[in-house]
Amino acid sequence: MKISKYVTYEEAIKSQTAIRLGIPNIPNEQQLDAMKYVASEIFDPVREYVNGPLAASSFFRCHELNTAIGGSSTTSQHMRGEAIDIDADTFGYGTNHSIFEFIKHSLEFDQLIGEYPDPSGNFAWVHCSKKKTGNRKEVLIKLKDRYIPFNDWKPGMI
User: Fold this and answer.
1) I need a surface site. Which of 22, 50, 59, 119 has the fewest CB within 10 A?
2) How many CB atoms neighbour CB 72 within 10 A?
């Protein structure tokens, strides 16, 4: 079953950690509705921008899975189905930095995070969330030990 033009339900709930730990990572109706919105509003436009396959490295996380990976039990938008982690580098269509810039300049979002930049300024993956209302348009960089505002970041900071 597809939840958007390019995202399948199976892809959206898949987690190696959930499989390994036997955690059923199943969204409820409200979470699935949010996932469909994020997939169509964020992932699909990014997929069309790179004109090739992308990996959704993390999308929905049930509370138990989110706890198992050390995610925030109170603020993780992955638990609400409102956040997706995208990795362009997996398939070589664009870079994670290029999709970060595309989202930042072209899409409406709640939070955009370039995660774990390498010395050249490319990110390990890009986290993006979107809500139906009240989006903050917050842009952050996740370094090894902290989050910093995008405007405080310079390539080479890791």
Assistant:
1) 22
2) 11
- Report the distance separating Cα 63 and Cα 46, nearest Å: 27
What is d(CA 49, CA 86) in angstroms, rounded to the nearest whole number? 13
Cβ atoms of 27 and 57 within 8 Å: the answer is: no
Residue bearing tokens 């938008």: 77
For the stretch 77-121, pLDDT in tens is: 999 999 999 999 888 888 999 999 999 999 999 999 999 999 999
pLDDT of residue 90: 82
Q: How far apart are CA 59 and CA 93, in angstroms?
A: 20
Q: What is the CATH number of domain 9-150?
A: 3.30.1380.10
Name the E strands within 1-158: 55-58, 83-87, 111-115, 125-129, 138-142, 147-149
Give long-range contacts, CB 8 A cutoff, 24+ apart: 144-153.
Answer: 144/116, 147/113, 150/104, 150/114, 153/114, 153/117
